[in-house]
Amino acid sequence: MKYKVRLDVFEGPFDLLVYLIERSKMNIYDIQISEITNQYLEYIKEAKEMDIELAQDFMVLAAELIQIKTRMLLPAEKVQVGDEVVVEDPRADLVQRILEYKQFKEMGLFLEQQAEVTSHIHEKPAEDLDAYMGEPEEIIKGSMGEFAQAFMQFILKKQRLEEMHKIYERIERQKMTMENRITQIADILEKKKTAKFSELIENDNTNFNKVITFMSILELLRERSITAEQKKRYGDITIRKAEAAND
Description:
By secondary structure, the protein is mainly alpha-helical. The protein contains nine helices and five strands; from the N terminus they run H-H-H-E-E-H-H-H-H-E-H-H-E-E. Among the domains are: 13-76 and 86-93, no CATH class; 170-247, Arc Repressor Mutant, subunit A. A hairpin with an 8-residue loop joins strand 4 and strand 5 (238-241).
């Protein structure tokens, strides 16, 4: 029998890179680029030997790692930042992208957990409450005390029904899905061409809906249906409809 080697399947090149860094117990801000590049290329080599088809993204990142490794061997470049001269780290951009990837992955895991929780929530079917909301057919006969007691019971019952209606309406409003939000954002950009991220979330009444809006924008970026620009860190994001699918 032939000896078979089973490789872990990774969702993308950064998934593999983060795994290698964590397995080697490296500080993410001080990546041993030579060692991690060799491990990454070894994985690609083993995958090719087993005829595992690798996405183009894996090869692109491999080329970037080799380029960074080469730059690390050369004398460090110095750049002017304000009044100070600092040494440029060729790994800085890669570290920032890894941190963003880990952040998005953690957010994805959180959404998966929330979806699992909500899948166990069952709603009570809507009922026809008209019979309880109309005017009483008969005037209660009896003492004033009995009449007052019956009246208070009616008021309390009506208040409970109104509260139930409000809760049900709030639940209905919170039923937002990524598919619906993607369609809404596409419709907005079809009319306005551009929109601010702050405008898209201003009517989201819960943090969950804000996360759905943000994930929908990421999905549209992945599909290259839109472009996004942030001129400064923590600044507002301008979203535009892509002029062509292959831009």
